[in-house]
Amino acid sequence: MCYSIEQRKPLKELEFRFKVKAVLRNEVLAEQLQFYHSNGFAHQMVAVIPQENPKFITPLMWGLVPYWESSAGYKDYYKNSIKYGSGLNARSEKLFSSNMYMGSAMERRCIIPLTGFHEPHHTQAKSGSKPFIVPFRFARKDDGFMNIAGIYDFTKDGMATFSILTKNATPLFSMVHNKKNSRPVILRDKDLDKWLDNGTTREGIQELIDNDMPDELLTAYPIHRDLYKTKVDTNTAEIIAKVEYDEIEIEY
Question: I need a labelling partner for 237 at 20 to 30 A (CA). Which of 5, 139, 192, 204 fits?
Fold first, then answer.
């Protein structure tokens, strides 16, 4: 699962890196698309490159709402589906079998450029202490953009929302994200055009998912537990600084 993300770069830098033009709408400001931490359950607008207009980057709401729903009921949909993740993630294993994902799989794929994301690590209980959860920050070792694969769709009255694709965990993610056997799909730089190409076949899509960015190009380290506190401002540079915990026994 991936419910916590980071996009620290200004919109102009995304335009330059991905050779796209920003198209803002719904009164979203460029500054709102730059953040150190976004809690997925707040359903923030996030900058996305859509398959239908791959020369543009535009804000979409995070949390896929099915095409049979209306925009008037999206808050109720998120509330009622919270135990299933409120549409924040879509399992790639169901991409071609789920009625909710099939249409998007071939025609509405997208790229979500991020500078990082955060996953929970469960510590082990020790004598005199209880286990607790520590957030880990994942990023590229070269500090480049992470090309997160996603799908998007429109409600029956035209509201656009997206979901981050996940897959089975690779060794790095299994070690850190030790209660869920999953990881986001992170596309290789060379595969971006193919991901957004209308001509990419089902087999080609699956190949891009299966052979996405390998663990050795990524870094992961623990950050402050304030990330999970609702009454703390987590949109600060300090929130993604490395923090050492004696209770963490894995090597990272």
Answer: 192
